[in-house]
């Protein structure tokens, strides 16, 4: 399983020495995060009814939801990618739809189509399954480029344009997509422009020995076919909008903004990369760090938040040179090198 353990951090390490009233003001809570913490814990409790382990994955998915971002889940079959996404959607009292991407899927099967009504002598738009708050796309890399391109506008602008008419998405709108990194037959490489629209790419690994034993024990005890109905909605759309507004008000020091820009900028200058990350990656890193800090009970962002999220934000936005790939390096290796190279603000 991917090692997502947080880096050690002390609040004092991130603050310049201050005394008296200035020091008291610097560490005074700027916003009450107790409500956010209660909602996050309630969602974790609901997920734990079915899912064994995957605590880091759950935290990152919650981070993406709070940061208003889409997520690409990559992992071999059988590691509960789809199940986790379905359960997360069930904890939110919002509309949900699921699409199974296949090679013969057409854009109209996703977005919807206009139907002619003879009695009215006019066309009427029939919305497709993309019109939901949480959209789960299974095996996203099985659809051809024509269908993938249909997602460009809706993922970035939260709208589609059909026959010259704009149709906005509901708020919230989040795409959770899964793909298998091993099987290549019958799959298509996702365009870089589409990958860039995902806030995170999360690698879902195998469970630990203890977690797999717990899975087996639960299945043996008759809980293997546990109904998803046990998972209840604990967060409404209005609640989520309020929490997102609170996350956006998180305090971020100017030096941290420069730190994020330096990290992302270094991907464009790194000799081992053919393609660096765009400014959208900087925005994703900032928004993700705000949400992660809030989930961890802080109303301010630290360099450790940025470092922790850097691989998840950047791994799908950069391309290694052929030489680096032949040497066996991965995108995560390069991101780690960049994190170690850039001076950490204190």
TrEMBL record:
Among SUPFAM superfamilies, the record links this protein to: P-loop containing nucleoside triphosphate hydrolases
**Keyword annotations:** ATP-binding, Nucleotide-binding
**Keyword flag Nucleotide-binding:** yes
Domain of life, per UniProt, equals: Bacteria
Among the Pfam families in the record, one is: AAA_lid_2
SMART domains per the UniProt record, alphabetical: AAA
Q: Cross-referenced CDD domains, in alphabetical order?
A: AAA (cd00009)
Q: Which residues form the AAA+ ATPase domain?
A: 67-208
* Gene Ontology molecular functions: ATP binding; ATP hydrolysis activity
What PANTHER family does the annotation carry? MAGNESIUM-CHELATASE SUBUNIT CHLD, MOXR FAMILY PROTEIN
The family note in this entry says: Belongs to the MoxR family.
What's the protein here called?
MoxR family ATPase
Question: Taxonomically, what lineage is the organism?
Answer: Bacteria, Pseudomonadati, Bacteroidota, Cytophagia, Cytophagales
């Amino acid at each position: 399983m991917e090692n997502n353990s947080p880096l050690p951090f002390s609040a004092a390490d991130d603050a310049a020495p201050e005394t008296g009233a200035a020091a008291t003001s610097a560490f005074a809570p700027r916003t009450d995060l107790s409500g956010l913490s209660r909602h996050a814990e309630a969602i974790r409790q609901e997920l734990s009814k079915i899912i064994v382990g995957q605590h880091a994955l759950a935290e990152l998915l919650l981070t993406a939801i709070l940061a208003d971002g889409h997520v690409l889940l990559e992992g071999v079959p059988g590691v509960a990618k789809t199940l986790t996404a379905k359960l997360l959607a069930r904890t939110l009292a919002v509309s949900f739809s699921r699409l199974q991407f296949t090679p013969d899927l057409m854009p109209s099967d996703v977005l919807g189509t206009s139907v002619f009504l003879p009695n009215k002598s006019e066309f009427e738009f029939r919305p497709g399954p993309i019109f939901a708050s949480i959209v789960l796309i299974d095996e996203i890399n099985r659809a051809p480029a024509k269908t993938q391109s249909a997602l460009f506008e809706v993922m970035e602008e939260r709208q589609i344009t059909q026959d010259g008419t704009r149709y906005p998405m509901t708020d919230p709108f989040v795409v959770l997509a899964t793909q298998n990194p091993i099987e290549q037959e019958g799959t298509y490489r996702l365009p870089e422009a589409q990958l860039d629209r995902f806030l995170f790419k999360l690698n879902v690994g195998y469970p630990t020995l203890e977690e797999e034993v717990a899975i087996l024990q639960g299945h043996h005890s008759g809980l293997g076919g546990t109904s998803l109905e046990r998972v209840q909605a604990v967060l409404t759309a209005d609640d989520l909008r309020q929490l997102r507004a609170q996350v956006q008000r998180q305090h971020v020091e100017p030096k941290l903004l420069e730190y994020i820009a330096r990290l992302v900028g270094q991907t464009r200058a790194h000799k081992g990369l053919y393609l660096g990350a765009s400014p959208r990656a900087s925005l994703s890193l900032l928004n993700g760090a705000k949400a992660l800090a809030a989930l961890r009970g802080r109303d301010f962002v630290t360099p450790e938040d940025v470092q922790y999220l850097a691989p998840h934000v950047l791994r799908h936005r950069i391309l290694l040179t052929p030489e680096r790939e032949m040497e066996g390096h991965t995108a995560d290796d390069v991101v780690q090198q960049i994190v170690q190279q850039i001076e950490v603000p204190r």
